[in-house]
Structures are given as C-alpha cells and as structure tokens.
C-alpha cells in the first residue's frame, strides 16, 4: 500500500561502521571492567598496589634469590646461620628438594627396586588416560583392567613375590603412598558408597537404619578419629594376635571415611531420578537389581559425576592426614626431612611445604578441571 | 561397622598381610620366623634408621639379641616404628612381640597397662637442654620459660611435678612426635626442651648448631628404660629378660664377640655353662631355646659393654659415659643374676 | 513397591512353595533377619574380642579414670587448670579449646568467604580474578599443609622474643605468638557490660519500631547507625562516667619472653588462620553459586521498581541466595569443626590432642574413643539442629 518513491527514504543500507571507540577496544574494556565506578577505581588501584607489593617479592624469593644447587645446608644458609649466602638474602632452597626428591617420591623404598613403583605408575597412566576420554571405546574392559587387574599386579610388583625381593610397606613413602591411598580409597569407596546409598533408600527398616547410622556416625567425626580407630582400635577388636599391616589399616580407615561421603553424593543422584523411572521399570517386570543396575544407577551416577570427582579431590587431600598416625605420605616425608640436620635452615620448611603444596595442588586442580569438563560434556548431551 | 570387618576380611584375604598369633608368643615367633619389636621412630643411639634404612641403636640390638637367641640369626628381627601414643596399644594387641622402645618402667605400666618389665637396658634420668645464650645454669632458674615436651610420656608428668614442687611457673608446649618437639625447640618456639638425658645428647646432635645448646646438670627423675612384654606369658618374659642378663653376664665374665669361640672350649666352668658347652646342660632347652642361645647372642650381637660402646658410648657421636650403666663391679647398676 | 503388592495378592490364589521364596515381602524379611543376625554376630565377636583382649592386657574398663588426677599441664586453657585437676577437667579444657577455635574460625571463614564469593561476581575484572585465584589456590591443597605452612613456615621464622615486632596498641609479635594488652576490670566494670547489654536490647526495640513505622508510613529509619551508636556509645559513656575503671596489663620483656598481657600462641594462630582461609575458599564458592542461582528477573524487577543496587543486593538477592547457601554452608561449618582436630599436628591442645595424652597415661583406648565420638557427634548434631532451625526460618513461606 505504501510506495517507496519518497526521496527521504533511503533506498540502500549504509555500510556498517565500526563501533565507536567508547564501547569497544581496550579503552572500553578498561573503563567497564576496571574503572566503571569510583568505587571500582579505588578497588582496582588497591588490588594493583597489592599485586605490585606481593608479586615481585614472591618471584624474587621463589626464583631469583633461590638456591638451585647444593649438597647440604650451607648452600641455603646465610653466613650468620653458618652458610655461604650473604646475610639478609632469603630465597627458596630448591637444592633441598632436589637432594630429597627421590625420597619425596618413593620414601625409603630401596633404590635398586624403584623401577617397580615407576612401572606401576606407567601402567596406571596408560590405563587411566583412555578411561578419562569419554569417546574412548571398551570402557568396561578398561575399568576391569584399571580397577581390578591393575591393583593385583601392582600389589605384587610393589611388595614383592614371584622372584622379586620383598619390600616391607614400612619402607614405602612419599607421593607413592599418597597415590596408593587415594587410588585404593577411590576404588573401594565408590562401590561401597553405592551400596550404602541404596541401603539408605531401602524399604527394609533394618537395613535402612543400619546404613543411616553408619553414614551419619562416620560423617559426624573427623578423619583423624577414624584413622586413629583403624590404627589403634582395630587390633583390639580382632581375635587374639591378629594384626594388620599399618598401611592396610590406613587404607581401611580412608576407604570407610570416603564411602560415607560417597554414599551421600550417590543418594543425591538417586533422589533426583523422577519417580516415573522407577514405576516404568517396575511395570516392565524388572527385579530390584535389574531395575537398579539398568535403569536407576546409570542415570543417577551420571547426574552426580562432578560431585563424585569432588569427593575424590577431598579424599586425595585427606590422605595427607595419615602423617598424623605416623605414616610417611608426601606431606609426612617432607615434614620428616625438614628435621634433617644436614638441611635445616630457616627456609627449608617453607620450601618443602611449597613443593608438597604444589604437587597436591597440581593433582587436585587437574581433577577439578576434569570435573568441570565432564559437567559440560554431560550437560550438552542432555540438551535436545 | 559391618563394613569395617567386611573390608578388613576382604583386604586381608586379598593382600595376605594379616597374620594370626596364638597365646604362646615363642611358638608364634618361631612360626613366623621373625621377632617383631616395637622401637621408637628415630632416637639416635637407641633406635634410628641410618641412611640406608638399616636400624641401629641399643634398643635395636636388644631385639637382635632376642632374634639371635631364638633363631641363631640376628637378622630375623623386624622393627616396627611406634610413636609414644601407639606403643602400648601395639603391644597389647600383639602387633609387636616385645616393646624395646626406651620405655620407662613404672608401676602403673607394670600393673594397670598389663605389661611385664624386669630388665633395664639403660638407666636414664630426665634432664633439660637450653640455649647457652640464655645464661641459665640450673633448672631452678627456669621460672617463666616455655618448655617443649613430647606428649604421653613420663617426661610430661615429671615435668609437671618438678615445676610444681619447686613453685616454678612454666608454659608447656606439647607435641605428639619427638621430631616436632625438637624442631620447635631448635627454631626457638621454646626456651627449654626436656626428655631423658640420653635423648638430650642424641637430639643435640640433630640441631642446627649443637654447640649453642647445653644440657643442665639437674636430673629430675629416675627413668629405668627396658623392654616390656604382655602379661601372662612367662616363658616369653623369661627369654626376653635373660637375653639382657646373658649380655651383662658375658661382659662380667669377659666374653666378647671376638673371644667367644675360643672361650667356648677353653673357658672356665661358669663360662662354659653359659655358652652351652657344658656336658648335659639343659639351661637353654629349659628356656625353650637351644643350648647355644647365649653363645649366639654374644657371638652375633655382642656383650652389653660392646653394644653400649657401639651405639651410645664415648666413641659414638653421642659420647655418653657408662655412669649408672656400668657393671655393678665397676660402680654402676648393671647387675645380672647368675646363669646356673 | 507396586510390583510387590501385586505379587503378594496373586500368591494368595496359588499357594505354591516357590511363591513364598519369590514373595518380595518374605524375602525382604529374610534379608533383614539375615543382616540383623550377621550384625549381632559381628558385634558379639568384636565385643568378645575386645573384652578378651582387655582382660588379657589387664586393663580396667569404665569411666572411673576421669576422676583421677591428670598430672600433666596444658599450655592453652580457657578455664582454670593445673596438673592437680582431674582427667575430666582436662577433657573439658580440650572441648572448650576445640569450640573456641571452631567458633572463631567459623566467624572469620564466613566473613572472608562472603567477601571473596561476592568479589568473584564483581564487574571489576581484577577483583574477580584475584578472588578466583584465592579460591583455586586454597581449595586444592590439604588443610593440614596449610596449618603446617603457617606453623613451621611462617610463625616459626618470626623474630625471637628479644627482637619482637612492635604492633600498634603496645602489641608484639614474635615466634612465641601475638602479645596483646590484657584488660583488667576494676570496680564498676560490670556496669559497662550492663550498658552494652542495654544497648543491644534497645537496638532490637528500635529495629522493631522502625520496621513497623516503615510498614505503616513508608518512612525509612537509620536503624544501623542508631544501633551502632547505642551498642558502642552506651558502654563508652558508662566507661567515662565511672572514671575509666578498666586498665590494661601491657606485655613487657621478661627473662625468657614477654610477660604480662594476653598471648595468642603460635599453635592457636596457625590453626585458626589455616582453618579460616581454607574453609573460606569453599564458602566463597557456595556464596557465588547461591547468588548466581537467583534468577536474573529478580534483579531486573527490582531495578524496574527503582531500587538502588545496594538495596537490591540486601533486600532482593541475598535473602533468596541465603536459602540456597545455608544447607551447604552448614556442612562447611561442620567440616571446619572436624578439621580442627588437625590441631594435633601443630601442638594445639584440642580435644583430640588431650584425649591422645590421656590415652597414653591411662591406656583406656575404648573409653577415650567413645568420648571422641560423643563429643564430635554432639557438636555436629547441635550445629545441624541450629542451622536447620535457621534454614527453616529463612525458607520460602508458600502461601
């Protein structure tokens, strides 16, 4: 109905213009992200001041003034402290970490036999990587190899037998023990947690009560108490003269503790499954275990994978507590070596803890990134 | 808790790390083929793993002596490092066969804890170590000081008693582990560190500047350190006790690891009786061992004097004089009943 | 369960032996009886073993030992305690120390956590990134390491007592801890406490009145400032009116260390700082996700109503976010309390450390572990009940 002959109506589009400088480019970014309001400006300046105050000192301490090589404490101590550094210089003593690195990794595992834990680690990584890649095939076989076969092989590799010299668990230590404890804890706590969670939702009052009491007691007390019970009380509960290896006791303590937390995570997943799924399975005539195994658990676990990984992270950090019951995991062995008179300087403890902290951080951060990745991965598969 | 035993049983079955023991410790030890001794995790001179992980020390040698007596092989001794908190439950539960862990013999440990003590392999007393720069000459000048101490020891109790009876104030800083307590003292958290005197000499070695520290003259307690076994197994108790007595008797009779082979044939009647070369002697078998039990101890581990000199004596870094631990014939307290 | 009902009905018509085995109800009862039997057997075995082991070890059981003289001293105590006190009192000292560090830690962790959590959502890129670095750093290292880092890495290398760092208000910091002036209450000091209480009560009344007036007339009232004036002003006025009855005991150099004043030991400081910083990183994440979970429409609607950004946060976003925040916050508070048992690593006399000492002196392992369980479980349950009450109060009331 309208003609477009009016001269004041433009006939063709104008060429697109770049956005004005004010709303794009670095200056816009600075204005909106750093100096949007007077309050923001003040905060930004304060934060910058903090960074300028902290970062150069940190870099200096960690890298520039740090001691990288040396054979004993004199390398890291100042003249007043009986060393060779000029007075007033303070920097990380990386030479200490370098000298003790083997111990931090393997504890007192005999030097000639250290290829065994290394071999176990290599096998573990080879099996773990396809497990972590969602698209990799044969998950079932992979899981069987990783969670059932590998532990058996590793056990004999590490402790000896079949011609390999026996290495007492007392000699195990360092990162090796941390990883063994975590892996064992993870492998045991997941199935145990599933059983406990199913038990807690069971309709049988006896089983339900048992599971609730178990879960709540374990969650109500600190891990050190559980470890203490495992290390001191367990022998009292057992028949006359039965004893357990100390490492095994710690493994039991850690696994029990983790499974109570795991149970609550799984229960969260179970609760999120719509009632229709249960009813649908029932109407197909599936038995309880068929229903649980084929319908409910796959959905429930998928829902809570991120939380499961978070529980693993917690478990990994918690293994450091075994140093309290006298085992030498990574943190324990770092602490132990700080009292070595050959290396004792004011900067040795901090350096050791920074090293241990970095290792722990690396593993935990890696796991949390993986959890975030899985969350995204699973999320998209649900969006239609 | 059900899961505890389940996983325990599964774990035990799978890993094969559990072991069962019967009431008779000797049979059990023979069955296992190894004596398990509870030792402290790191007190130089008493029990301390060296750089290669080999255990050394006077308590360790006691345990090796038991292994030598039972098996004729001192290497058949297994050492379990125990904290002061773990040590009693470990012995009670049978995790260790004997506790040779510089443990003070007290009446309550002998009775209410259910242990048996008889021999004393080191007579000790509690003392203090301070920094020389504080200019303290006596423990009585320590009022107001911060004192580092290991928790759960007789040391902790003696400390409280001593300061109370002398009307001194102090600030206790307690740690579960010996190493933590000594590090805290060394880094200046405390003015004083207190433990048995032998321990003071030992930890002084571990300090940044050993020469800046001095041990105060006061000895505030009696600390007879000796092995403990569970009550109710007299046979095992006898063996553990007589290992020490054999070592002391050997020193008294002048038997050393070097001349023991020679003396076994050429020695006097008392020497021969002890070393099991006397005709028809049943001393060893009555003890539940073989007749060359004492010979094995002296040959493979040494007499008491040899062990002392090797682990804590004047030629070791600890430089401890025999003092109370000299033989009774030389003015000390080491006195062994006759082997007859 | 629907299937079960169906099954049991059909089994009424065809009474075959096999149907009994297949009847889920019967099987359920069978499983439960089996479990119960196993449990009873297990408990019985464990009890028998324990009794046997204890008898063999000749250990008397029972809680009578709590009446005995403790004989050891404790460095940090909130109540009067000497080596002459009983084991029971020593245990009480431990419980109070645990509660002290837990309560202070919870307060500090909440403050840091809320600040960092809100900072992570800040428009300011630098602030948000800093907050993120904080969270990712502390979340991924073990709390025990943080404690040891503070204790052995930082405080142990502070200057010795003679070269203490001077802080404001005649406070000092050295490797023996933080020394602050200790108030000494003279005559009439109680009046100041009363004034403080009156201030609080008056503030509550003012707040109620102000709310009522705002509801009726729409006129706002500066409750916060009035309240502050009442709570701080009243005690100060009383203090001046009574002629300053509070004096301070200042720390001075003694033979070994600073004497006088109040001292916060390195053990307490490390534990407190470590627990606060560590838990704060988790609280920050909870706060962030809680705030993000409030639908954007709420903020937009509030904007449309003309509320200022401060008021939006305070009146619209936070109350809704809190509902999501409180349940996970509760478990963080409980975690902090439980983590306080790591005190044993740095020599702080909490319940776990003192229990350990008692165990060593008395050998009553079973009793002391039972006490641990009772104490920690009661703390957990009390906190859970309180937070559930708070949660119910904050929960959405559906009309």
UniProtKB/TrEMBL annotation, chain A:
Any idea which GO molecular function terms this record carries?
transmembrane transporter activity
* UniProt cross-references to SUPFAM superfamilies, sorted A to Z: MetI-like
PROSITE patterns per record: ABC_TM1
GO biological-process terms attached to the record: amino acid transport
- Tell me which residues make up the ABC transmembrane type-1 domain: 175-364
Where in the cell?
Answer: Cell inner membrane; Cell membrane
**Which parts of the chain span the membrane according to its record?**
41-64, 115-133, 145-165, 171-198, 210-235, 247-266, 350-368
Q: How does it sit in the membrane?
A: Multi-pass membrane protein
Mention any one GO cellular component term assigned to this protein in its UniProt record.
Answer: ATP-binding cassette (ABC) transporter complex
Q: What PANTHER family does the database record attribute to this sequence? A: INNER MEMBRANE AMINO-ACID ABC TRANSPORTER PERMEASE PROTEIN YHDY, MEMBRANE COMPONENT OF AMINO ACID ABC TRANSPORTER
Q: Would you identify the family this protein belongs to, as annotated?
A: Belongs to the binding-protein-dependent transport system permease family. HisMQ subfamily.
* Protein's name in the database: General L-amino acid transport system permease protein
Which organism encodes this protein? Aliirhizobium cellulosilyticum
TrEMBL record, chain B:
List residues of the Solute-binding protein family 3/N-terminal domain: 34-263
Ordered alphabetically, the record's keywords are:
Signal, Transport
Offer one example of a GO biological process linked to this entry.
amino acid transport
Q: Which domain of life is it from?
A: Bacteria
Q: Which residues form a coiled coil?
A: none
Record bears the keyword Signal: yes
| Signal peptide (UniProt feature, chain positions) | 1-23
What family classification does the UniProt entry report for this protein?
Belongs to the bacterial solute-binding protein 3 family.
Name of the protein = General L-amino acid transport system substrate-binding protein
Q: Which organism is it from?
A: Aliirhizobium cellulosilyticum
């Amino acid at each position: 109905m309208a003609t477009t002959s009016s001269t004041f109506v433009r006939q063709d589009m104008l060429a697109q213009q770049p956005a004005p400088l004010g709303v794009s480019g670095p200056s816009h970014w600075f204005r909106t992200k750093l100096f949007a309001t007077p309050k923001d400006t003040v905060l930004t300046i304060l934060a910058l001041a903090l960074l300028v105050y902290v970062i150069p000192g940190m870099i200096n301490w960690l890298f520039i003034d740090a001691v990288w090589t040396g054979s004993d404490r004199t390398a890291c101590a100042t003249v007043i402290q009986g060393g060779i550094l000029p007075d007033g210089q303070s920097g990380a003593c990386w030479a200490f970490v370098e000298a003790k690195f083997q111990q931090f990794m393997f504890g007192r595992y005999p030097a000639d036999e250290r290829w065994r834990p290394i071999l176990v680690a290599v096998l573990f990584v080879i099996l773990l990587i396809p497990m972590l890649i969602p698209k990799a095939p044969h998950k079932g076989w992979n899981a069987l190899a990783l969670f059932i076969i590998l532990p058996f092989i590793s056990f004999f590799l590490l402790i000896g037998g079949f011609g390999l010299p026996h290495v007492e668990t007392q000699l195990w230590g360092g990162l090796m023990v941390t990883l063994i404890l975590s892996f064992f804890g993870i492998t045991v706590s997941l199935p145990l947690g599933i059983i406990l969670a199913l038990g807690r939702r069971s309709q049988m009052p006896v089983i339900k009560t048992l599971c609730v009491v178990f879960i709540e007691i374990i969650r109500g007390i600190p891990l050190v108490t559980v470890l203490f019970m495992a290390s001191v009380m367990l022998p009292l509960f057992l028949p006359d003269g039965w004893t357990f290896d100390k490492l095994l006791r710690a493994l039991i303590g850690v696994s029990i503790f983790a499974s109570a937390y795991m149970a609550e995570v799984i229960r969260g997943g179970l609760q999120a499954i719509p009632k229709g799924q249960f009813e649908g399975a029932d109407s197909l005539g599936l038995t309880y275990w068929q229903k649980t195994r084929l319908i409910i658990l796959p959905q429930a676990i998928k829902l809570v994978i991120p939380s499961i990984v978070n529980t693993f992270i917690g478990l990994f950090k918690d293994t450091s507590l075994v140093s309290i019951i006298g085992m030498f995991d990574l943190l324990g062995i770092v602490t132990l070596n700080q009292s070595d008179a050959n290396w004792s300087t004011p900067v040795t403890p901090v350096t050791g803890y920074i090293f241990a902290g970095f290792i722990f951080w690396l593993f935990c951060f890696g796991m949390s990134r993986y959890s975030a990745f899985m969350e995204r991965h699973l999320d998209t598969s649900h969006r239609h | 808790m059900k899961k505890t035993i389940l996983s325990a049983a599964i774990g035990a079955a799978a890993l094969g790390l559990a072991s069962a023991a019967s009431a008779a410790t000797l049979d059990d030890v023979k069955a296992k083929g190894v004596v398990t001794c509870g030792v402290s995790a790191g007190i130089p001179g008493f029990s301390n793993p060296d750089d290669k992980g080999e255990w050394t020390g006077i308590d360790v040698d006691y345990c090796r002596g038991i292994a030598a007596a039972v098996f004729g092989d001192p290497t058949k001794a297994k050492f379990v490092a125990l904290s002061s908190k773990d040590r009693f439950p470990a012995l009670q539960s049978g995790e260790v066969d004997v506790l040779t862990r510089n443990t003070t013999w007290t009446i309550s440990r002998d009775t209410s804890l259910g242990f048996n003590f008889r021999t004393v392999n080191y007579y000790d007393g509690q003392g203090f170590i301070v920094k020389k720069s504080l200019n303290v000459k006596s423990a009585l000048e320590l009022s107001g000081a911060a004192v580092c101490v290991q928790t759960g020891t007789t040391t902790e109790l003696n400390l409280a008693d001593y300061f109370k009876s002398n009307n001194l104030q102090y600030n206790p800083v307690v740690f579960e582990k010996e190493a933590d307590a000594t590090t805290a003292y060394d880094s200046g958290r405390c003015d004083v560190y207190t433990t048995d005197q032998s321990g003071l000499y030992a930890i002084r070695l571990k300090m940044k500047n050993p020469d800046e520290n001095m041990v105060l003259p006061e000895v505030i307690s009696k600390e007879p350190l000796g092995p403990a076994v569970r009550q109710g197994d007299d046979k095992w108790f006898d063996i553990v006790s007589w290992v020490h007595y054999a070592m002391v008797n050997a020193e008294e009779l002048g038997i050393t690891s070097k001349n023991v082979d020679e003396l076994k044939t050429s020695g006097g009647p008392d020497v021969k009786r002890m070393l099991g070369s006397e005709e028809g002697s049943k001393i060893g078998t009555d003890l539940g061992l073989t007749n060359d039990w004492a010979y094995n101890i002296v040959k493979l581990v040494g007499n008491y004097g040899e062990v002392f000199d090797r682990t804590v004596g004047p030629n070791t870094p600890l430089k401890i004089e025999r003092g109370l631990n000299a033989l009774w014939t030389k003015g000390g307290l080491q006195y062994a009943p006759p082997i007859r | 369960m629907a299937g079960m009902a169906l099954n049991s009905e059909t089994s009424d018509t065809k009474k075959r032996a096999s149907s009994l085995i297949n009847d889920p109800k019967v099987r359920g009862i069978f499983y439960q009886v089996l479990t119960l039997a196993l449990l009873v057997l297990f408990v019985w075995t464990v009890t028998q073993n324990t009794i046997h082991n204890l008898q063999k070890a000749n250990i008397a059981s029972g809680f009578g030992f709590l009446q005995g003289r403790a004989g050891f001293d404790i460095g940090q105590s909130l109540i009067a305690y000497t080596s002459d006190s009983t084991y029971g009192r020593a245990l009480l000292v431990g419980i109070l120390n645990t509660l002290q560090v837990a309560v202070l830690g919870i307060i500090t962790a909440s403050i840091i956590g809320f600040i960092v959590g809100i900072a992570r959502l800040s428009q300011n890129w630098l602030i948000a990134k800093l907050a993120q670095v904080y969270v990712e750093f502390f979340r991924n290292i073990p709390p025990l390491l943080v404690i040891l880092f503070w204790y052995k890495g930082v405080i142990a290398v502070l200057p010795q007592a003679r070269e203490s760092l001077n802080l404001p208000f005649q406070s000092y910091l050295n490797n023996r801890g933080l020394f602050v002036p200790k108030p000494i209450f003279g005559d009439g000091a109680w009046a100041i406490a009363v004034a403080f209480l009156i201030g609080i009560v008056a503030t509550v009344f003012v707040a109620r009145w102000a709310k009522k007036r705002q509801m009726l007339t729409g006129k706002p009232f500066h409750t916060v400032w009035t309240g502050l004036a009442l709570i701080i002003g009243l005690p100060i006025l009383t203090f001046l009116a009574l002629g300053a009855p509070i004096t301070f005991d200042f720390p001075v150099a003694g033979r070994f260390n600073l004497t006088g004043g109040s001292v916060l030991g390195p053990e307490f400081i490390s534990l407190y700082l470590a627990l606060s910083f560590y838990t704060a990183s988790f609280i920050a994440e909870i706060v962030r996700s809680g705030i993000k979970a409030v639908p954007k429409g709420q903020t937009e609607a509030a904007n449309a109503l003309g509320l200022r950004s401060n008021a939006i946060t305070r009146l619209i976003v936070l109350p809704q976010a809190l509902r999501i925040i409180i349940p996970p916050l509760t478990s963080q508070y409980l975690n902090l309390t439980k983590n306080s048992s790591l005190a044993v690593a740095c020599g702080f006399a909490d319940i776990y450390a003192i229990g350990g000492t008692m165990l060593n002196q008395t050998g009553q392992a079973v009793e002391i572990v039972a006490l641990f369980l009772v104490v920690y479980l009661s703390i957990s349950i009390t906190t859970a009940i309180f937070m559930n009450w708070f949660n119910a109060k904050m929960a959405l009331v559906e009309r």
